[in-house]
Amino acid sequence: MTNVLLVADDIWVYNDVVAALSEPGTTVTHADDPGGLTEIVIELQPDVAIIDLQVGSKGGMAIARSLREAHALDGAPDVPVVLLLDRSADTFLAKRSAAAAWVVKPFTAADLRAALAKATALTAG
């Protein structure tokens, strides 16, 4: 069973992620507001977080970094992050945020599943 936390406020991003991950054993929980994300992570204990590069007025890079801080300072679970990038030139942002993996939108189901596999393998290994 893979528990995925999706942080995105565009409905098309939500629809594409759910469609790509619609397989037995995978659950996707959606948060469209990054406020209170630490509490959601503590409650849900997701295996991976998929974060859109821009969510409301907060960037995916900042959200990823706040999850890392919550782990280091508050004992929140260490959740690997997959960033959904707007363009390939944004990969430097993903690297700076210490994301475990990333994909450029629009993405295929295979691209997203491969990024998830990479992110969860890094955590397991």
Instruction: Give a short account of the largest sheet.
Output: 5 strands, parallel
What fold name goes in the CATH topology slot? Answer: Rossmann fold
Mind telling me which CATH architecture this is?
3-Layer(aba) Sandwich
Distance between the termini: 18 Å
Helix content: 40-55%
- Rg over C-alpha atoms, rounded to the nearest angstrom: 13 Å
Name some characteristics of this structure.
single chain; 125 residues; alpha/beta; Rossmann fold; five-stranded parallel beta sheet; two-stranded antiparallel sheet; 5 helices; globular
Q: Would you mind describing this structure in some detail?
A:
The protein has 125 residues and is of the alpha/beta class. The chain has one domain: 3-Layer(aba) Sandwich (Rossmann fold). Helix content is 44%, strand content 24%. It contains five helices and seven strands, in the order βαβαβββαβαβα. The protein has a five-stranded parallel beta sheet with strand order 2-1-3-6-7, with helices on both faces. A two-stranded antiparallel sheet has the order 4-5. α1 crosses α5. The radius of gyration is 13 Å and the shape is globular. It starts with a strand and ends with a helix. 35% of the residues are buried.
